Structure formats: C-alpha cells, structure tokens
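input
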Amino acid sequence: MAVDSSLPSPLGPPACEKDAKALQFIEKTTRNAAGVQERVLAEILSRNAETEYLRRYKLGGATDRKSFKSKVPVITYEDVQPEIQRIANGDRSPILSAHPISEFLTSSGTSAGERKLMPTIQEELDRRQSLYNLLMPVMNLCVPGLDKGKGLYFLFVKSESKTPGGLLARPVLTSYYKSEHFKTRPYDPYNVYTSPNEAILCADSFQSMYTQMLCGLLERHQVLRLGAVFASGLLRAIRFLQLNWQQLAADIRTGTLNSKITDPELKECMERTLKPNPKLAEFVTEQCGEENWEGIITRIWPNTKYLDVIVTGAMAQYIPTLDYYSGGLPMACTMYASSECYFGLNLNPMCKPSEVSYTIMPNMAYFEFLPYDPNSMGLDPTRLVDLVDVEVGREYELVITTYAGLYRYRVGDILRVTGFHNSAPQFHFVRRKNVLLSIDSDKTDEAELQLAVDNASKLVLEKLNASVVEYTSFADTKTIPGHYVIYWELLVKDSAEPPSPESLSQCCLAMEESLNSVYRQCRVADNSIGPLEIRVVKSGTFEELMDYAISRGASINQYKVPRCVNFTPIMELLDSRVVSKHFSLSLPHWTPERRR
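output
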C-alpha cells in the first residue's frame, strides 16, 4: 500500500524517513479498517475458490461477507485436523490453500497431547515481516536515541521435525529466525542486536544462551534495551547468569572461550570477538558475587531504558520478579501474535503492563469476534461481529480467516475491547480460553490436569491402597524456572503404611509423563519449567477450604473445589496444612518427533 511519508503522523514525529512511511501506513490502514477487511476477505476467497475446503461449502466463487458467513462454518482445530493431517502426510492437492503449504508452524496449544500443526505459505513470511517493520518506528516515538546503542535479546531456535510427507514442523519464531528475512536483514541502526546470528541459530540451548550472555557482557555499555519473547525467558537468562557468571568472567579475563562451546560456526564467531579484558571480568565478578541481586540488570547494563518482553496474560505473574531484578524498568509489550496469525501491535508500548492494548492491523487476516459468554452452552455463528463492529468494554473470542487456509478458525484467545485507533479496535489480552496452568509456552487445561492426577493414582497409588481425595494446583513462579505445584489430600486405607516419599516422587513423574508435549519439551529440551511438585496436605484440608469459601459468600450447593488457586489467603491456608513435599526426580519422556 503506497503512503505519502511527507504527511505528519498523528502518532508523533518520526525518527527518520523510514519510520515516517511506517507510521503513515499504520494511519492509512487503521482509518479504513472496514474497507481493508473487505478487501482481505475477497482476496482470500478468490485465490482459494478452487480449494477442496471452500468448494465443499458451495461458495460458487462468491467473495462477499454475507455469502461467506452464511455458508462457511466456525471451526476449532479438531474440525480441520483431518485436512491438516492429509497435508502433513504428503497430499499436495489444494485442500486448504491454492498456494503450496510451505511448512507447518507448531502451536503452543495442543490437541490430544501433541502440538497443533498450523499450515503456512511462503508469502506469510512477508506478512509477518511487515508487522515487525512497524514495531521500532512506534518504539522510537516513545524512546529516543535507540540508534545510539544495541539490544540484548535472548532469542532461540527450538527443535523441529518433519511430517510423514516431508514438510518441516517447527515453532513460528524458529521459522522466522532461520529465514532469509531474519538472517540477511538489512542494517538498521535502530534495531541492532548484541547477539550474532550464529549464537541465535545455535540449536544447543546452553551454547546459545552462554554466548548471547557473553556478548551482552562484552558490550554492556552499548546495551539500551533487554528482551526475550516472554518474561519467563528473560528471567531464565538472569538465572543462567547466576549459575554461570564465574566461567563467563574467566572467559572475559583470559580472552579464551569456554570449552563447552563446540558449535564450529559459533566458536569461530566468538573467538573473533573475544579479547582479554581483566577490568570487565573484575566488574562482573564484583557484581555477580554479591548475595543481593536486586537491580542486577541496571547494575550490569546501566544504560538500559526498558525491557522488551511479553508480560500480558499468564506472563503477568512474572512482573514483580522482573521489577526486582531490573530496579523497576519499564516493560514494553510490543506486539500480539500466534502461530496461526500475526494480529497487531501496541501503539503505546511504554504503558503500564496492566494497561497494554493491542491495535489489530486489518491487513493481516480477516477477523471476526464471538461475544464471550462463559455460561453459553453452544455456538451461535450469527452472533459473530466484524472487526469494526465490536463494542468497547465487551469481551470476545477471536476468530480468524487467513491467507494460508484457516477459515473462521477459533484461536481460543479472550480479548476485551479498550478503545479504537481510528476505526481499528484495540484489545486487552485477557487470557487463553480454558487454560489452568502456564509457566512458559505451556498451556495445561483442567481436563489434562485431571488425566495426569488419574494416571498417577492408577500407576502408583492404587498399588499402595491409597487414593487422591481432592486436589488443586498453582503455577509457582517464585522459583526460576517456575514449576507446577499440586496439592493432594490422600485417603490411605492403612495408616500404618502411608505412601513412601519415593512412591510420591514417582507420582510426580507419572503426572509429568501424562502432560502434553509442550510441557514436556519445556521440561526436557528448553529447561524452562522445573520439576513438578506434589504437596500432601492433612486430611480435612479441602473441607476447611470449602468452609472458607462459604464464609466469603459462596453457595454451599454450588461450591466446587477450584482446580487452580492463586488467592493469597487460600494459598496460606493450604501451605499451613502441608505435611510433606515431593518432586519429580527425573525428566519425563520427550522427543521432537510427533506421535504418528
């Protein structure tokens, strides 16, 4: 879309000519959100008119909204999974998209315990890049001088696999970092990283983290912003520094690289960079050797202006810890995206985390919104509203139609409308639908947790004449990495022979083995979740919990034990009744290969 960069931007004065074009594009696109949406839907439907999926619903080449909404159903992943599986197995006919499916992006959401496979096409990389290109022009309005330094971003590639038909299946960011869009990106003084590509693209998580941290320390005065994708990732980097600062300081002191860095390209890159610097090594030793790590980020990187991390949704639980380590630096949430689609950006990125709202960019996909009613028994597709017709203050479930072949697909995100930028709505991310526990990219729902408890009972407790009377859970993020805590009240038939500590540790592992592949990958490959913990509470604890709830106005007839808790008085009550604590003593099984 052509824009006139000579026009002033209502968002503010641009930092440079390139920024001016980006800001004008935002203005032009959001002013005509309805028209852009109409064009996007027509493009998607016309190019994919001969696909098997759209022909099934007899659109007859129609590209208007009325025909589309009256004939094409609203779906979930399970509805379209048979078509996705055919593509994964090697069927190259135009099933969902007229353009060839180039790879699958693996979602952090799961179906039957495995990551969902989201089809994508080559041109989607351009579309995602177009949104990335808008982020720094907006940030430059809020934080001047970012061209005078660098960003220390902890970015990683994750494991990938191939489907039976030979298509790659990998996370969306791994796809992006390995693309030419990222690897051969043009130099932009406003967006320079301390980490070389070789460090980001190294598949070994230790070597990647170690060298990215080392580069950040070597250029500590140039660092103007610190970031990771999620808040949990940045905290994991701080924990890594706590565990490895002595070796890092030794490398800096001598100018020689840790022998654990064996990746040939990475090793060669780092050996060109690393020179003896005893003064910096002494500084690192002095700062990291202190017991108190409060404000460590600004002590080591004194010119840091903000943290660039997602702290909305489940990540909000990490804000106090980030405040502690950063000395209260602002936290910028810049964009809203998923494996299915990139959605929009935050036009006020330096706002408080609780006030973050994302402006949906209407050129990214065709968007519909289902008014959210947690008590609704069924789906009424006539209730869906278009992007420009949402109401401020209401909550909606996001439904998308993409260029890559998802039609009226329920993403599962619950959003609240906070306002509009021109005619494009702005949304606060409320939560993922049905998610009970989340530490990193994992999402565990109530059914999965129930299955894990049942399996642990069957595999271990039944043999010991014991059973779980009641349970609840919470995501403990005070530890780094965070971990799941499950409170169990047990019924033991022979009180003289209660389950041993060893058998309860086996229960922890049995639960982990039952959780989905994203959880197990976070545990095994990413080290972003710690061992699951079971806390056994005294008999009668859950009756006390019910009494407490009733004393606060809950109905005794409608009371149900909450399967996840985070209310401080309830946590204190549970913890005061704990009689023993147990952890998984080994890792659950996980491989990059999907179950066939």
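quick obs: Residues 1-7 have pLDDT under 50 and may be disordered.
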